[in-house]
Structure formats: C-alpha cells, structure tokens
C-alpha cells in the first residue's frame, strides 16, 4: 500500500550548502487496514517524511511506492487523502463550497457530492448552520475539522493525517480518534503523525518513533509498552479484610514493598467528556461528544 526505502532529506541553504538533515535513512511500510503512527518530538522529521511519501517533496535519496506506483502517478493520488500540518483551506469559501470544489477535482458528480458532503460534515462535527459560513470566521479547531472532511472527500484508501488533533479541544480530539477508528473499521489504511504521544497513539495499531530524522523504535504499541517483568491483577470490589489477606498472600511471592494495591482511575479524557456531556447535554458540540458512546471502563 505504502512503502518507503532509505528515505533521506537534506535541506540546503541559499548557496546550496547542506544545512539540515531532516530525515536520515527512514524505511517503512503501511500495510492495508493498519493505523500507523509516526511519533516524535518537534523537528524530528515527521512532516518531511510525510511530504516525501506523498511526492510533495523530492527525497535526497531513497524510494517511495504508493499502491505500487510512483507517488507522482495520478492513479495513486486519486486513492489518497491528505490533511497537511498547516491548513491550506481557502478562507473565503464555506465548508460546503470547499468540499464541492475538492469533490469536483476528484471527479465526483454533482449528485455524488450532494449525497456525500452532508455526511462528511456530520462525521467531522461541523453543524449544518456552519456549513455555509466562510471558513475565515471559524476557530482553529473548526477549520481543522473542515480540513479533515476535505481529506476524506474522495473516499480514499490511504489517509495521511499530519497532526490531525492539532488545535482541537478534547471533544474534537475524541471525535478525531473516533473517526480514525471508524475509518479503520471500513478497512482504510491510515498514517498519522503526532508529537502528543498519548493522544492518538491509542488508535494506532503500530507506531514508529522518529528522533532526529531516524527511526528510534517501531512496533505494536502494546508490545513496546508492556513491561514483561511486572504483573498486574485487577479485581472487583473487596472488603478491607480481603485486601489485607490478599496482600499478605502475595507477599509470599514478592518483596512486600513490591506489592502495590490501589484503585484504577478513569482516563482524564473520558472523565472530561462525561462532565461536558452532563453539563450541556444539548451543547452545539457534535453529538458523539455530548453523549459519549459508553461509560468509561475502569482502567486496569
Ligand atoms: N523547507 C525547509 N527548509 C529547511 N529546513 C527545513 C524545512 N522543512 C523542515 N526543515 C527542518 O527539518 C527538520 C524536520 O522538520 P519537520 O517539519 O519534518 O519536523 P516535524 O517532526 O514534523 O516537527 P513538528 O512536530 O514540529 O511538526 C527540522 O529541523 C526543520 O527545521
Ligand atoms: Mg510536523
């Protein structure tokens, strides 16, 4: 689906002298149906890598194949959706006009556009009343949502999102994650970048951690994060006596200081979404945020 081999990018200065090695020997592949996260601190080369993968920036060295084709091939680009790091939306168009325009570029008929645009706007949480307002009047987060809709207008097989949650409030971030999960269920392949590790990492099936333009770690998140030499048991409600008894029992197998008993906490995001949902059940926020799908499960 997406393959890169030995990508390298050296930016040069005005006199053509090498100035920055932004990406230094990155090889990766995104398999169909996976959500691949490109994580790394600011300046680690995520956006540069993405731009080379999409054929928007010529690599100094290395090779990219998109759907088995060169990233310049129009047949490859037709199957691709891209949300750039910085919005490239036309400020004087409305969300509806923006999607009309990009839908037209991808060859969607007027009937297809009419059918698709309202659904897309709904899925990114742009209210009907805002669909015909100029994007210039929008907040950063609302404009980001329009950018996401634009990236999906052609029903792409591969969706590349450069910092999709940048500028979004917790409700927006939750919605983006839900959208990514939804796209994954539809069998789409997703490549996303972020420097907010906890933020989108939990939707990724695999992550690549870039540091100074090089791959530092890669693999399935659960495998990367799992501490094989520690164990955790999660139990239901217990009496204080039962807790003492179990603790004493466990102390036979581990150093007493090594046995930790505590109460798991709900992730802050779930707590926030519930609190917002309780405070304003009919707020203008998207429906999915006002009524979180399920009560948060206690985290182990
Ligand atoms: N057009 C350019 N000219 C010169 N240097 C550049 C250019 N674009 C990026 N760089 C440099 O390449 C390095 C990687 O930048 P890049 O934008 O790829 O990082 P990033 O991981 O996306 O960071 P962020 O999390 O801040 O978006 C940085 O040192 C940056 O200064
Ligand atoms: Mg970037």
How would you sum up this structure in a few lines?
The chain is α/β, with parallel strands linked by helices and 300 residues long. The chain has helices spanning 46-53, 74-77, 95-105, 110-123, 140-152, 170-185, 197-201, 221-225, 240-250, 268-279, 287-290; strands spanning 2-12, 18-30, 35-39, 61-66, 80-83, 158-162, 189-194, 206-211, 214-219. The two termini are 35 Å apart.
Strand order of the largest sheet: 5-6-7-3-8-9
Number of domains: 1
Written as H for each helix and E for each strand, in order along the chain, the element string is EEEHEHEHHHEHEHEEHHHH
* Span of the ends, CA to CA: 35 Å
Main structural class: alpha/beta
Task: Write the CATH fold name.
Answer: Rossmann fold
Question: How many strand units?
Answer: 9
Q: Largest sheet, if any?
A: 6 strands, mixed
Count of runs of 4 or more consecutive helical residues: 11
The H-level CATH homologous superfamily, spelled out, is P-loop containing nucleotide triphosphate hydrolases
Instruction: Determine Rg (CA atoms, Å).
Output: 23 Å
What is the 3D form? Answer: globular
- Unreliable spans are 283-300
Q: Helical percent range?
A: 25-40%
β-sheet strand percentage: 15-25%
List the ligand species: adenosine-5'-triphosphate, magnesium ion
Mean pLDDT: 85
By CATH reckoning, the class would read Alpha Beta
Question: Mind telling me which CATH architecture this is?
Answer: 3-Layer(aba) Sandwich
């Amino acid at each position: 689906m997406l393959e890169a081999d030995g990508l390298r990018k050296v930016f040069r200065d005005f006199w053509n002298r090498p100035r920055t090695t932004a990406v230094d020997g990155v090889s990766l592949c995104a398999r169909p149906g996976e959500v691949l996260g490109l994580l790394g601190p600011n300046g680690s080369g995520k956006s540069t890598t993405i731009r080379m993968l999409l054929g928007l920036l010529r690599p100094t060295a290395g090779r990219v194949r998109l759907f088995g084709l060169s990233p310049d091939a129009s047949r490859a680009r037709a199957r691709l959706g891209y949300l750039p790091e910085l919005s490239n939306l036309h400020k004087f168009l409305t969300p509806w006009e923006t999607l009309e325009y990009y839908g037209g570029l991808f060859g969607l008929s007027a009937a297809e556009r009419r059918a698709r645009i309202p659904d897309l706007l709904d899925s990114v949480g742009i209210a009907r009343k805002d669909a015909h307002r100029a994007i210039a009047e929008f907040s950063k987060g609302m404009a980001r949502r329009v950018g996401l809709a634009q990236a999906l207008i052609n029903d792409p097989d591969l969706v590349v999102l450069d910092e999709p949650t940048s500028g979004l409030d917790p409700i927006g971030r939750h919605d983006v994650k839900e959208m990514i999960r939804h796209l994954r269920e539809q069998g789409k392949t997703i490549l996303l970048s972020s420097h907010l590790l906890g933020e989108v990492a939990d939707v990724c099936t695999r992550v690549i951690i870039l540091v100074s333009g090089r791959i530092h770690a890669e693999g399935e998140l659960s495998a990367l994060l799992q501490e094989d030499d520690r164990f955790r048991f999660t139990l239901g409600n217990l009496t204080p006596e039962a807790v003492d008894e179990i603790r004493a029992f466990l102390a036979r197998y581990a150093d007493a200081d090594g046995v930790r008993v505590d109460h798991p906490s709900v992730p802050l995001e779930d707590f926030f979404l519930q609190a917002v949902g309780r405070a304003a059940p009919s707020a203008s926020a998207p429906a999915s945020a006002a009524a979180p799908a399920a009560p948060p499960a206690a985290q182990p």
